[in-house]
């Protein structure tokens, strides 16, 4: 009986931890088309363009600086770890072959970011 319960628990955990998003849809270059502060509705007019490779590597171009590291999706979250830095995660709202929407917490404030595929 313990064996059956253990197997059922393992199966449940495997299913629960799987992402509903297909990570292969991330591959490519993405341009930010909208970045909104949720509390005020104000736009953020800074660049934040992404490139996600099939080898789980990413790059973000902020205009004046670049961030490089590795990424993965777990559940509803996109996780990134910049080289030499701590892990960050954003909640994916929508991911299709042409668009990516996520919610991020920046300095204690929620912000919504919408990107479109460039290639």
Give an overview in words.
Helices cover 13% and strands 50% of the residues. It has one helix spanning 2-17; strands at residues 28-37, 49-52, 57-61, 66-74, 77-82, 87-95, 99-106, 109-117. By secondary structure, the chain is mainly beta. An 8-stranded antiparallel beta barrel has the order 1-2-3-4-5-6-7-8. Residues 4-17 have low confidence and may be disordered. It has 1 helix and 8 strands, in the order αββββββββ. The termini are far apart.
Task: Give a brief description.
This protein is mainly β. Helix content is about 15%, strand content about 50%.
SSE inventory with pairings:
Elements: H1 2-17, E1 28-37, E2 49-52, E3 57-61, E4 66-74, E5 77-82, E6 87-95, E7 99-106, E8 109-117
Antiparallel strand pairs: 1-2, 1-8, 2-3, 3-4, 4-5, 5-6, 6-7, 7-8
The SSE string, one letter per element, is HEEEEEEEE
Query: What is the count of β-strands?
Result: 8
Please state the CA-atom Rg, rounded to the nearest Å: 17 Å
Largest beta sheet: strand ordering: 1-2-3-4-5-6-7-8
Task: Give the tags.
119 residues, mainly beta, eight-stranded antiparallel barrel, 8 strands, globular
